Amino acid sequence: MSAAGAGHGLHGEYVGLGPLDEFPIHQLPRPVAWAGSSDRNFYDRCYLNAHDRTGEIFLITGLGFYPNLGTKDAFVLLRRTVDGKAVQTAVHLGDAADPRGADRMAQQVGSYRIEVAEPLRRLRVVLEETEGVSLDLHWEGSFDVVQELSHVMRQGSGTTLDAQRFAQVGTWEGVISVDGTDVAVTPDRWVGTRDRSWGIRPVGEAVPPGKPADPPFEGMWWLYVPMRFDDFCVVLIIQETPDGYRTLNDCTRVWKDGRVEQLGWPRVEVRYTSGTRVPTGATIVCTTPDGKELVLEVTSLLPVPIHVGGGYGGDPDWTHGTWKGAGFTERLTYDMDDPAVAGRVMFGVIDHVGRATVHGPGAGVPDGSEGWGLFEHGALGRHDPSGFADWFTLAP
Q: CB within 10 Å: which end of the chain, N or C, has fewer?
């Protein structure tokens, strides 16, 4: 067998070179298809959402590659009201990833695909009819993408998360179809946010835990608020430990003309529905580089727990990266008023249709100007500043 033949993967140990290796994009002395880390939890994933500002419908979707697990998957999560009931409909798709990385440029899992029309600006998201659901949506970024600070989490001496992300706000155009009913998506009403992240985070099947964590994991407090205004966007991301120590703080404003401002160390007050951990809104006080206050008053119009059908942490039904077999598809429907489902909500992150108004001398636009986007929050376990003493404490 020639050396050229060996490189085509006739034997598994030689699988590596693929179409991406024709381009000068290498970062390591190895084929692009091989992850830079041997950690089984290496991933590369995108997340997108869309809503029409009414709080009546919210679409969340995404696609991910897990090269060290040999898998790829995609999901669609749709929150709406059906026959008077609050319902989340989930479609899951999974398959084997090409070990040579040939499917990285053509991002597709079964009948779901993401087309990059213009990098960092325009995308197309398509789901051919699957289990009664289909999408054909075009995304256009309203502002330049925001490169967020690197995100690292450790448990004892181990690394549980080490990732890079970029985020963007924008508008949507196209159609969503569910069980024969079409929803027209027009850019004058439909807005959303997206992010792409890659690195290491827990994915796939559970692994043996080994020695109990020391110190034990007591929870985390998370806030992610990308908002689109007419003249600028704000992308805020904060994480705190149970005692309120801030391990991630990144707040950026991007103007239409490309100017970028860091908005300091935001002070945050989250308001919760009594007897729950479901937020109704938040007051976020930021500071411009010249020391002026910029206040965001954020309101939730519709909550969507992304660990109920979305595959994120705490979802018992489906987890990103898990091998379900070749050509896997399924559709799950959740009655959000079912006590068995409602009882899961406080143990994961919730994405909300978010509305914001901006105030203060640092606003740079008329007081009360309105913005729309995502209000994502999770208060998991203990968080002393919020008054949550353990995993089960609820808001008064």
A: C
